[in-house]
Amino acid sequence: MHDGFGLSNLPYGSIRRDRASPPRLCVRLHDEAIELAAIAGDLDVDRALVDAPNLDRLLGAAPTAWTVLHEALRARLAEEVPAHARVPLAGAIPYLPFTVADYVDFYSSIEHATNLGRMFRPDAEPLLPNWRHVPVGYHGRSGTVVVAGTPIRRPVGQLPRPDGPTFAPTERLDIELELGFVTGGPPTSLGAPLPIDEAADRIFGFVLVNDWSARDIQRWEYVPLGPFLGKSFATSISAWVTPRDALEPYRVAGPEQQPPPLPYLRDPEPWGLDIALEVELGGETISRTNAAGLYWSVVQQLTHVASNGAVVRPGDLYASGTISGPASGSEGSLIELTQNGDRPLTIAGEERTFLLDGDRVVLRGRAGDVELGEVAGQIVSSEQPASSGR
Amino acid sequence: MHDGFGLSNLPYGSIRRDRASPPRLCVRLHDEAIELAAIAGDLDVDRALVDAPNLDRLLGAAPTAWTVLHEALRARLAEEVPAHARVPLAGAIPYLPFTVADYVDFYSSIEHATNLGRMFRPDAEPLLPNWRHVPVGYHGRSGTVVVAGTPIRRPVGQLPRPDGPTFAPTERLDIELELGFVTGGPPTSLGAPLPIDEAADRIFGFVLVNDWSARDIQRWEYVPLGPFLGKSFATSISAWVTPRDALEPYRVAGPEQQPPPLPYLRDPEPWGLDIALEVELGGETISRTNAAGLYWSVVQQLTHVASNGAVVRPGDLYASGTISGPASGSEGSLIELTQNGDRPLTIAGEERTFLLDGDRVVLRGRAGDVELGEVAGQIVSSEQPASSGR
Fold first, then answer.
1. Domains: count for chain B
2. DSSP secondary-structure letter at B119?
3. What domain range is A34 assigned to?
């Protein structure tokens, strides 16, 4: 099988060749990173955009420059690349591919919203009245978005107990399988919405997202202002940002929306994305689903965010929310896969519910011959000393 | 009465002398801004910290440098300042004083939380069970934090109606009177909490915050993930950041906390702040309160944020949530002042509930002879063209 990192993909990342080298903007070609500064002279683009540590400058450029560069790279990398531009990925150190401006997390999977509703409000309609009208979302913490591979320290927080909260390491550490996108282009003007037919142009590319969640902290804190410390300890994203152009062939119609969305959210274009997704835990695949099932599309998400006049900046990260499918085994979180811990999974012969110290989770996504950058993360004990950051 | 901008204050701002000049880091002395680059040679500090467009570099420096600079400025500005360093504030253009990293909004006034609970859950305990244990908060949108004086365009959004939502300009545009602080120093390490006896050192200074709110958008969208587009259209902060050292004489004991907070939130130091606050609408003062009544202190807020290992960065903005007092006329929002619109205020002879186009709101705060930078904002119609951003 194709490794998914050929000329049709060419995702961008920020890579250090070794611990002594600074991060450089690269594209991935199979098992190598190509330093763009080293081939900038062969590309008909502004050198400053690619002779850079990461994607920040390119994200700030006009969207038309992205397609020009992607095309130029496809042509150039079909030819021989000099050895000094090539960095073997084995031994290279990935860095966060862009500086995260605002981070928004949506709740766009109807199956996920329904599953959680059934668990938490068993006597009521599982889907809340606003859900089919509003692409529900909230702002997350930009400062703790980390690159795939970063160890995740088990967070400590207030856990609910019958006689009042205790402050202890979370006992319900979970994953959330999500698809994210990063925006670019000049910032929108304060007060100026982004019409839905202009929103797609602002999407630079896509990453996988693991929105790590401490369910006990979250449950205790989240009423009435939403998730906070149950999520803000870490959010992992792919080291590689797959350009929008590479996923263009995999756009499909999304699910029918009933009732039809309000006019500002009606998209004339199909923006479902046929990306097969899977979650691996302890070396076993525990979930398989597809991003095409998301009820609210990426374009609807972005249009909604800007509809009140909020500024959309280069480097904003928007994540889908947990992606779950209708079938058993297609849920994107452990709380769903184990029915709130009541039905353990069997992994390597052991019954398992939430994450244990030492667990390694890997998220993967693939559209045809385009592989998204995987998101791996290993849980370390809350007793371990903290990492030195990104 | 002292104007509140003497040598005991010296707040920092980013000021353009005129439309042709770039923003420069200044301190305010009475009705002038003093460009720090112009007097840097007289100050025994790293020139790069003050020869800058705004506070970003100083926020990234070690907290000890802040006190050194503040003391040096007090000494230097007691003497004559050359004319070329002085910018009359009349005609000068304020800019956002620092780049906002993460923005967190708390809910720290027990009176505000109780008032809203009574309105929205009339048959239940007004205060939710978590409130006296957790400094409840959520992340807001950094990209739409704007400097005082920026016109606020009435946001459009989904408003609830009996037969389903409509997409229209908000009909319940409100203010929230808040006290904010900005953090500095090197970023904390991912996974490393900030013990409560180290948190205060991270607080660089204080601003007033108007967390503009569209109550109808907010009510429809906020379950279960919290406020989103009802808040993200604009948040205004003072053009001047009052250094922590200037407010040191106004630290007081906060309210008694019952039950006592969990040990990680127990502060050996008093961190209530005796700052008299007021809200002006249409030229009339409609609310008077004091920040000393806040249940959760600024130090408890920051300690809580970092307790799960989240990174605290220079430029993070933390706001208190609406500050309301126990007395009638001490509420920090129109929804409280008018009891959800049921009891209009009389302003200039007219009955008023929520904000109308053209309304001008000013927030003011003062501790002894230290005046905080006011936060003014005027509402413009959603029909007006959008501004060109900050």
1. 2
2. H
3. 12-95
